[in-house]
Inverse folding.
């Protein structure tokens, strides 16, 4: 019994890692722009596809060994995905912001951008699934009935590292200070000589790069890619970010792991039909006790 | 005013000319999943039908009652969704005015679409659906595949005999009529044969799920002799891989939804050595079946999977029925009725997936095969099971 519980905790940590990594992107953009970037789940999907093409290119055409391919795929994917995120901001969100459009319209635009990414992928690559190549040999370790793979450990460790890196950037660097400043007062910040557009670009780049990282790890763990893979997980990661307190890095991270853990543990005890029912009931209870999320601070609107 | 009248007259006559021309073609609608969860299934259906159409139109068309008709196949995407299958069926019946419909392939779509076909009195034949509900009490609906109440026991008997299995576990897709139905039949049959409580775990998941670790942890902790997975090929790949990562070393047994040519691209080495029950085995085929496989492989560069073979059979059954009507009147309702009558009267049909005979429900009585996934990734014939 004990080993089943520990086993499920490991499963939950792995599953939660993906929610956490994607939720980080939601929360950063929200923190700076108070914009819910609903295209983020699809940026994650694009990241997975970019890593697929990079890895296949490196493995099949250049013939490099798997670990070299992995070492190259990670930075290349993160950079390219960051560029996708930044392009979205440049093409879709910035023009609206310039025209002073209401936030609601930007959110709708984001939803549309997500759908465009999904269906462009469907149109270009077709509906058939892509199988992600095996970059590193998966070793299965079995210690006293508890099994884990090197991949599972790598996913969990990467998610935790990503959190610390982002937390450090936001709280300890100048860029991070500028981000927090924009989030505090969007109108006064440009007067202080802070280039607001560049900071927003950096925010999108960071958020998307980590979505790209989640894409690689997801593709390695669940090696079947399809155009709609980002939709549902993106929505759930957004909910995780809200539960954690959207706008707060710690909240996104914690929210992601809570959602992952609740989902896995519900399935471990109840039939899988109850998973979403119970998972979202738990989240609803958390929100009704603390409407701003676990780490959120209630803000009054200034007129 | 005059001009409008002239245009109206002109367009009317064009319409008449078009419909007069259309009388020499036979329209068959295909309600297949070209996007969604199982796009390969739709693609195989389409490729197979295209080959058949090229054959018949190349030979001058289909002869019905002394008159040659050209075939026109309309492929409509049902996105592998139940609700889209319904709208697709309605579109084919009402807007495109097809004579008969082939598809949908999965029971999940065939059950609701069958209702539409039956209500609108249009013949529908599903190539791949194995759930009894698709044709049950629907005189207008037929199929080319065997039924799950037959397939379930095939899997049970094979596993008991070959693996010497005394216990089993099941993992199935709860939101898929096919998967759920077959899982329940399997459980009941296995417990009847081996004894109550021999199915140690009966776990479900959703269609869009990607992580099965919680279910598999539960299953692995009961140490079953094998896991029965009546799931679509795309999920099979994930399930088998994740089970191996949880250090499950035992056997798997699958059902006919495994048999896509894409299974091995997605699953790779992990699926080698596993068994599943299906409609036909491409490796080691003879006669007309071999001829079909060779031509298909040459034309498209891949071995036809069971959906391709069943679509070939299903479409040929429809064409056979159209020929048996002895002549089309051009009146849609009347012709559809005649086709239904002819269809139910086909004595036996020699298909490439075996000989079949329709019972009163419109279901064929035919054999199933169990195949093993070889080390080269081909589906190798292991055993054939026929209904008594």
């Amino acid at each position: 019994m004990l080993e089943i519980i520990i086993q499920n905790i490991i499963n939950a940590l792995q599953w939660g890692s993906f929610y956490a990594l994607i939720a980080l992107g939601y929360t950063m953009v929200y923190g700076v722009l108070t914009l819910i970037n609903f295209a983020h789940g699809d940026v994650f999907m694009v990241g997975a596809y970019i890593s697929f093409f990079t890895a296949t290119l490196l493995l099949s055409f250049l013939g490099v060994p798997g670990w070299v391919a992995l070492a190259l795929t990670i930075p290349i994917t993160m950079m390219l995905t960051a560029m996708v995120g930044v392009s979205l901001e440049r093409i879709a969100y910035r023009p609206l912001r310039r025209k002073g459009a209401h936030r609601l319209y930007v959110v709708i635009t984001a939803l549309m951008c997500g759908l465009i990414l999904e269906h462009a992928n469907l149109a270009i690559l077709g509906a058939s699934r892509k199988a992600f190549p095996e970059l590193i040999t998966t070793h299965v370790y079995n210690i006293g009935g508890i099994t884990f793979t090197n991949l599972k450990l790598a996913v969990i460790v990467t998610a935790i590292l990503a959190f610390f890196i982002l937390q450090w950037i936001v709280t300890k660097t100048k860029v991070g200070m500028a981000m927090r400043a924009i989030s505090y007062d969007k109108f006064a910040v440009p007067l202080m000589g802070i280039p607001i557009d560049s900071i927003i670009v950096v925010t999108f780049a960071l958020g998307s790069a980590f979505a790209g990282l989640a894409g690689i790890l997801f593709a390695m763990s669940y090696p079947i890619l399809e155009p709609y893979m980002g939709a549902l997980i993106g929505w759930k990661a957004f909910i995780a970010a809200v539960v954690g307190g959207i706008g707060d890095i710690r909240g996104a991270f914690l929210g992601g792991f809570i959602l992952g853990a609740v989902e896995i543990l519900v399935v471990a005890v109840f039939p899988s039909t109850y998973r979403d029912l119970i998972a979202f009931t738990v989240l609803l209870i958390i929100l009704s006790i603390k409407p701003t999320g676990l780490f959120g601070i209630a803000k009054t609107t200034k007129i | 005013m005059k001009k409008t009248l002239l245009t109206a007259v002109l367009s009317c006559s064009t319409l008449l000319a078009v419909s007069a021309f259309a009388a020499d073609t036979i329209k068959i609608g295909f309600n297949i999943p070209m996007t969604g969860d199982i796009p390969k299934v739709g693609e195989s259906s389409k490729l197979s039908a295209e080959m058949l159409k090229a054959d018949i139109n190349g030979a001058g068309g289909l002869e019905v009652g002394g008159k040659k008709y050209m075939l026109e196949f309309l492929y409509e995407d049902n996105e592998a969704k139940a609700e889209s299958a319904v709208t697709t069926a309605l579109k084919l019946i009402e807007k495109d005015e097809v004579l008969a419909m082939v598809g949908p392939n999965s029971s999940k779509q065939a059950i609701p679409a069958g209702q539409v076909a039956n209500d609108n009195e249009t013949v529908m034949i599903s190539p791949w659906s194995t759930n009894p509900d698709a044709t049950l009490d629907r005189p207008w609906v037929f199929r080319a595949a065997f039924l799950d109440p037959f397939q379930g026991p095939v899997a049970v008997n094979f596993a008991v005999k070959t693996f010497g299995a005394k216990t089993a576990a099941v993992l199935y897709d709860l939101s898929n009529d096919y998967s759920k139905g077959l899982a329940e039949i399997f459980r009941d049959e296995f417990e009847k044969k081996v004894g109550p409580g021999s199915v140690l775990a009966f776990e479900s998941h959703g269609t869009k799920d990607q992580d099965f670790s919680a279910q598999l942890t539960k299953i692995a902790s009961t140490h079953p002799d094998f896991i029965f997975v009546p799931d679509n090929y795309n999920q099979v790949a994930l399930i088998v891989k994740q089970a191996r990562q949880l250090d499950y070393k035992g056997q798997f047994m699958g059902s006919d939804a495994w048999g896509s040519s894409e299974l091995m691209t997605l699953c790779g080495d992990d699926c080698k050595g596993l068994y599943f029950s299906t409609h036909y085995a491409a490796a080691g085929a003879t006669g007309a079946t071999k001829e079909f496989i060779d031509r298909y492989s040459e034309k498209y560069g891949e071995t036809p999977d069971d959906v391709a073979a069943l679509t070939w059979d299903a479409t040929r059954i429809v064409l056979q029925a159209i020929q048996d009507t002895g002549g089309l009147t051009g009146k849609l309702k009347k012709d559809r009725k005649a086709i239904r009558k002819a269809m139910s009267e086909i004595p036996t049909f020699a298909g490439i997936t075996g000989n079949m005979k329709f019972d009163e429900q419109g279901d064929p009585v035919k054999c199933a095969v169990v195949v093993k996934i070889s080390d080269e990734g081909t589906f190798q014939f292991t055993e054939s099971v026929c209904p008594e």
